[in-house]
Amino acid sequence: MAVYTDVADEELSAFIATYDIGQLLSCKGIAEGVENSNYLLHTEGGYFILTLYEKRVNPNDLPFFLNLMQHLSSKDLSCPIPVAAQDGKLLSALAGRPAALVTFLDGMWVKRPKPEHCSELGRGMANLHVAGADFDMQRPNSLAVADWRPLFDQCSARADTVFPGLAAEIDKELTHLERVWPKGLPSGVIHADLFPDNVFFLSDKLSGLIDFYFACTDALAYDVAICLNAWCFEHDGAFNVTKARAMLNGYTKVRPLSGAEYEALPILARGSALRFLLTRLYDWLSVPEGALVTPKDPLEYLKKLRFHQDVDSIESYGLEP
Amino acid sequence: MAVYTDVADEELSAFIATYDIGQLLSCKGIAEGVENSNYLLHTEGGYFILTLYEKRVNPNDLPFFLNLMQHLSSKDLSCPIPVAAQDGKLLSALAGRPAALVTFLDGMWVKRPKPEHCSELGRGMANLHVAGADFDMQRPNSLAVADWRPLFDQCSARADTVFPGLAAEIDKELTHLERVWPKGLPSGVIHADLFPDNVFFLSDKLSGLIDFYFACTDALAYDVAICLNAWCFEHDGAFNVTKARAMLNGYTKVRPLSGAEYEALPILARGSALRFLLTRLYDWLSVPEGALVTPKDPLEYLKKLRFHQDVDSIESYGLEP
Description:
alpha+beta; EC 2.7.1.39 (chains A, B); ATP-binding (chains A, B); five-stranded antiparallel β-sheet; Aminoglycoside 3'-phosphotransferase, Chain: A, domain 2; 321 residues; Phosphorylase Kinase, domain 1; homodimer; 9 strands; transferase (chains A, B); globular; 2 domains; amino-acid biosynthesis (chains A, B)
């Protein structure tokens, strides 16, 4: 939950007046999302989400994110659509922060996804990859394999305070992944953070994708690998092969995976597990005393990493070998 | 800000199905209010606020609050209207808590009220008092003069850790108020918590009152006294006589105050200041380490109390003597 920024009444009204959305009727802070401040606005023109970008988002990346959402929605992918101000710009400023207005998207995220949801997710993610194919902006993944070592260096000294032997285990895995990380896989726009809370459903049908603030240009199959981790493990840590099969089948009905992509999946899944293990570990060790946000457990991703280390064929993900 | 309770998907859907409001389309936790968990729902039937009542609210009081809102809205007072479930009941349960659904009310609260807002507030409060006149339920004020001493006893020992001499100052004031507290003033439904964040405006016109969870049966002029404190002091502690005059004139245009009510105002304002000083002091001393909610400063109300102690006529509130 997060609403970090207080906005003065007059400032908000002046901001709204730069858009063609009529008078402001209501503004409520939303207790969701941890990176940015989000407000649900009701104006004479409809319902909108106002986002103030807090310091974790690089302002230089915002044109990529906003143009991407606009591009995807023009390709009939359901996602929040950035609203242009009267000067035609998608990106503005409010309360000293970069700010943008997007359309309100109905739908709810599913706290306990079932295989049907995973199938829908697979389909939606493939639609995203296809719709993004002709997007003309690029953004390198700022949390790609080359970025993990510097991140690890910032928390390796205290890693063992979280779990004994963690530093050595990460170091070994990192060395392996740096050596074998696949190159030349089909690449394009990936969401890179397609966790359940970023995927909306209505009556068990996917109704939209949100939160494109990690989106980047990378191997498409890496997005699939992220979702194997984010959607296909149970709360007790067990891998649910039925969900994985449903997700992969949902995906490949829209965009078939190549042989090289199938083969790379276990390594990509290890990499994805390590990426979230590292960022969570960093957050865990960096959280100030008395902070409002409880960091997510890094060890959840250590368990996922270990699972994929034992995978030697896509059979483990529920597919025919 | 507060969303305390996590509601499971299936439980929420089952809850919504007991109302005639169509399918659930969206549910967002609102980062407002400190007492209860509030969610903004979008369903096929419109927009609603779902409230889960947390432990500070006595469940036995809920029928009073919900029936009051229904009564007031039937008298054309703009406030959230409780929605009855298919069984006709206004009060339900969700996630182990009492729960109710009310209509969504447009409007925004004003962080820095101007005299025009105070005038509107006065008018709206008087409309509330008039509309409540024939409400047939009663609820004694659970934070009335007789309740202050027991509250003080719970925090007197540590009061001086907040401000040296505070315990003695409160004790003296309490003894005085217990002796001179006015009796026999016109009584009825009061809101009892009509702070700026509970009063909605649209284009500087009052658009509605919310949060009736302190409403009770008490002296109507006590509500006015609460608002003298909540609306007519500047952030630097100065009393703004222009705002007080605007508020009182707005009120009396709808419901004239009697001579006894005018005369009682300074004492009622002292009592109201002491009531909020005591509850804030209690919260300040009770807040657990690392709590999510920052308690409000009790000393703000010590300053307000001292101001009213020096008032000997309603001239100080901007009115003709």
